[in-house]
Amino acid sequence: VHAAWLPPEAFRAVGSRRVLVLGEGLLVDTVREEATRACARHGGGVRHRPPGGNGTADEPFDLVLALSTAEAPAVVTAVRDEFRRTSGQDAIGDEGFVLAHRDGVTVVLADEPAGLLYGFFHVVRLGETAFDAARPAEHHRPAMRRRMLNHWDNVDVHPVMGQVERGYAGGSIFWKDGALREDLTRVRAYGRLLAACGVNALSVNNVNVHRTEAHLLTDRLGDVAAIADELRPYGIRVHLSVNFASPVILGGLPTADPLDERVRQWWARATERVYQTIPDFGGYVVKADSEGQPGPFAYGRDHADGANMLADALAPYGGVVHWRAFVYNHRQDWRDRSTDRARAAYDHFAPLDGRFRDNAIVQVKYGPMDFQVREPVSPVIAAMPATRLAVEFQVTQEYTGQQRHVCYLAPMWSQVLGFRPFGADGPSVADIATDADTGGAAERAVRTAADGGAHAGGGLVAVSNVGDDRFWTGHPLAQANLYAFGRLAWDPRLDPVAVLDEWIDLTFVPSATADPERLRRTLHAMMDESWLTYERYTAPLGVGFMVRPGHHYGPDVDGYEYTPWGTYHFADRDGVGVDRTRATGTGFTGQYPKPWSDVYESLAECPDELLLFFHHVPYGHVLRNGSTVIQHIYDTHFEGVEQVAEIRRLWEKLDRELVSPEVHARVSELLDEQLRCAEEWRDQINTYFFRKSGVPDARGRRIY
Ligand code: BDP
């Protein structure tokens, strides 16, 4: 058994009730099966047909999940009427549901099967509170139409990257020894976990599409179809990362030029076959002209030409292409101070705004660099009002402790999603990534004013963090990041701490009968601020990197300093940080609209936590908290390590019976490693800056 959220005990409230499920369709069947399993375990009962064949028969039910009011008990009609009256609308929406509790009955009503599925899991999440008091009709709908995970799985084990690129939880859950796994029950279980947090799309393979993986598009399409079959009952569509050079690699054509008619035909036919095999296929994900991947540049074409060619192939079937904006020169000359990797995505993509097809989504990493613990929001997100943009997060903790460190990332994501690139009156990042027909219309009007039209947003995407590890994510607590990603994509306004609470409740509390409050308190104390703790003991004040080149785990103060990757901190004897101002630096601040272009440009106004991202300052520069940069570095590094020691102490103090011995042992072992690694960071970073600056620690602590 693989331990995760939704253990059988999490269904106690639902499973002890009298449940009625009404409706037809694959996803309704899933709800039926879920309810039946829960009731068999917890003593309730499920009916699948209307009682007595008409809506007025009143066999008593505690929970009714219905696709329509026809033949449903009268309370369902009453809820529908109440919804119409109070919302002034008729449609519940594709994936939405209405939840109410009246006359002693909890009702979930949906227009489409997917809504019933999400409504069911919402009731599970609420537990007893879904049944204990009257509840007016609430309308739940996802903010983002597409809530997607990108797997970076390879079919084969890659000599450098292993099977899952940046995977920290074992091998792929899809492939083993170069072949699709024979037993895919785990994929189905994964779909269930994802449905319970709202994810509805998934790309199965690495964005770096190597030889074997390129064939998933053609002769190995059966693998993708089999995965799609497992995920479909949980409302998840499958997408595929494709190699831009496929017409050459797979089709034997002399070119992959996106404007060449033979190339267009090749993609059209390949895509037709994909849809013949997988009719609900989602679309393609493409990393092009980035870190060695092929792309349109080779033919003198641009990213819009490339993306539109694939968009055209997908359009007849309603598919989309996610075209990644992670494009920069990874062979830059570190001696040339005029190039700035942070500028690259904007420089490549902003000029193309308005040229992308409606089913071409430009997928932008949340920051301008690369998934660092602290980055400003990417300026691309504010620069393409006439393009559908998806924002990309990294659930896999490549730069945030690689699932050996506790680092709950939802507070960071939530900050990014709430950021308003045009200032307080403009739309948030979440609004920009949100679809046009769901919520926030007024704010979107601001965004789309530029082109006068309503452009749907592209949704939220994250790189997955699961593997064939017993706990799915290596670190059992890293599951919370996966859960929270789905929930924030459903509703970006959720409070990350409340989401963590949900995850704790769904994962541990059902079995922690001894003292659930204690468990909850301990986990919150360990996790709520763990992102900030991680930031404290690693690279300071937004400067980023300082990690070991290649695998990116642990400190290496100058590891990336004189390399072609564009990831520099510019520390010298006088100061540290990257001058990205317009006045004296790379001009990157000019890629932001006001007010941020001015805020970031100004040394006085730039937020401290991003200071070294935007400015090169002397070590004696005084921060808003009154501390100097150098003293801040020392203080946060000592403090960060102390906090890790404290969370380790909290975990050790936890009663053993509150979590399973396996979970306890795994977390303990990893906390030892986190503490060791945090001390390594502290000592190397502090010593490095002490030796560079010659400034001693004001509090006389040990620096080597
Ligand atoms: C970087 C990873 C690399 C990925 C790349 C990407 O180090 O393995 O291929 O991102 O997003 O963070 O394409």
From TrEMBL:
InterPro entries: A-glucoronidase_C_sf (IPR037054), GH (IPR017853), Glyco_hydro_67_aGlcAse (IPR011395), Glyco_hydro_67_C (IPR011099), Glyco_hydro_67_cat (IPR011100), Hex-like_dom2 (IPR029018)
Domain of life: Bacteria
GO molecular function: alpha-glucuronidase activity; xylan alpha-1,2-glucuronosidase activity
Database matches in Gene3D superfamilies: Alpha-glucuronidase, C-terminal domain, Chitobiase/beta-hexosaminidase domain 2-like, Glycosidases
Active site annotation, chain numbering: 291, 370, 398
BP GO terms, sorted: xylan catabolic process
The Glycosyl hydrolase family 67 catalytic domain, residue ranges: 138-472
Domain (Glycosyl hydrolase family 67 C-terminal) ranges: 473-701
Swiss-Prot/TrEMBL keywords: Carbohydrate metabolism, Glycosidase, Hydrolase, Polysaccharide degradation, Xylan degradation
GO cellular component: extracellular region
Protein family according to the UniProt entry: Belongs to the glycosyl hydrolase 67 family.
Protein name as annotated: Alpha-glucuronidase
Organism: Thermostaphylospora chromogena
Lineage of source species: Bacteria, Bacillati, Actinomycetota, Actinomycetes, Streptosporangiales
